[in-house]
Amino acid sequence: MQVILNTINELLDRMGYDDANIKAEDNMGRIKVDIKLREGRELIGEKGLTLAMFEHISRRIVSRRMTPAPKVDIDINNYKHMREEVLRDFALDVGGRVRAENRAVELEPMPSFDRRIIHLALAGFTDVTTESVGERGARYIVVKPVT
């Protein structure tokens, strides 16, 4: 755990974020790292894309320093948690619309983290299904009625 904390702290220091408060916990083999910053918006980026890149880089560095490499999930100022709630509500609204109109709805392209939340939010619906479509950065979800 200390290797992960040191790695993330080192990256943040090099990026000029010297006010970071970092906490980590092991959740069944996944290390959840919560970072609190005074000004985290820039490191989160639009739709969390900068955060996703920071997480990817952190994971790569940790994987070179630890064997076996743990799965590291990073959140900044509770962004992912809040985004999850917004996406879950959005998914339920879209699912309701697909039910009511009995027609498919294509969502805008989104990162895999966001798509996963949409899929999970609608997984319990028996009359609606979801499918990821597209390539790389242009992957999106189609929510459609079960036929």
Number of E-type strands: 6
In terms of per-residue confidence, which ranges show pLDDT below 50 for 5 or more consecutive residues? Answer: none
Note the main sheet: 3 strands, mixed
Q: Describe the strand arrangement of the main beta sheet, using strand numbers.
A: 1-2-3
Alpha-beta content class:
alpha+beta
DSSP helix count? 5
Which CATH first-tier class of the largest domain would you pick? Alpha Beta
Could you walk me through the main structural features you see in this protein, from its secondary elements to its overall organization?
It is a single chain. By secondary structure, the chain is an alpha+beta fold. The chain contains 5 helices and 6 strands. The protein has a 3-stranded mixed beta sheet with strand order 1-2-3, sandwiched between helices. Helix 1 (2-14) packs across helix 3 (49-65) and helix 4 (79-101) packs across helix 5 (112-122). The mean pLDDT is 94.
Set out the fold topology.
Blueprint: H1 2-14, E1 21-27, E2 30-36, H2 41-44, H3 49-65, E3 71-76, H4 79-101, E4 105-106, H5 112-122, E5 128-133, E6 140-145
Parallel strand pairs: 2-3
Antiparallel strand pairs: 1-2, 4-6, 5-6
Helix pairs in contact: 1-3, 4-5
